[in-house]
Amino acid sequence: MAKTIVLSNQKGGVGKTTSAYVLALLLQERGARVLAVDLDPQGNLSFCLGSEKEGIATIYDVLKGELKARYAVQKSTLVDLLAANILLSGIELEFTGARREFLLSKQLETLKPYYDYIIIDSPPALGILTVNAFTAADYVLVPMLSDIFSLQGITQLDETIRQVRAHCNPRLEVLGVFLTQHSRKNAFSLEVEGTLEMVASDFQMPVLPSIRKSMALREAEALQQSVLEYAPTCFTVQDYDSLVDELFLGRLRPDDKK
What we know:
Oligomer: single chain
Shape: globular
Low-confidence stretches: none
Order of helices and strands: EHEHHEEHHEHEHEHHHH
Number of strands: 7
Distance between the termini: 10 Å
Strand order of the largest sheet: 3-4-2-5-1-6-7
């Protein structure tokens, strides 16, 4: 039965999509059965993973109840994918019925027996799509940049997680927060890193190893290729590999039972 992990931060451009992309690839390389779910109307994860563009079923069709989830899964050359498109942007107004927070959870339950991990890329907002992701997930991973705005967002993120635990998903757990595009040579980045330790401690969020910046990773995403093949020795890939070692080879082994 799959473990479901959502990448979340209300701030855009912090590395949610990139982290979902690399983690999905690394887990699959290690023999896990992986499903990536793009819940961001921008569809960037879908693009990175080589999603088809025309005439395809998407997570929007699944959430509307027009299609069962298994019929919308794309068997891409990289990992299995539930793709997104811009139609998701109207979900706040379109989906107003009771228990709308459980739309994604209901659909993913039917797929869990076929995967070890489901990785969800959530939008940069704390609206109904993110609440759906939290309701469906077992764990939250929080990527952030070395800036003050990312630090400020942790407070609102923590409040949303608490609300979801109270009303929708009491099992939801924060795996940790980690810095992306991080430079230990930059004095301000190091200052933010120190502040993050204090802020995360207040919210009982573990601080995970930082991820360095790499142009090779951006190039692989733009080319819709696996970065593990495009730049296997890239230090950013090595950082993510260490993150996988710390999280997924310990407490999150696919044969563990929650």
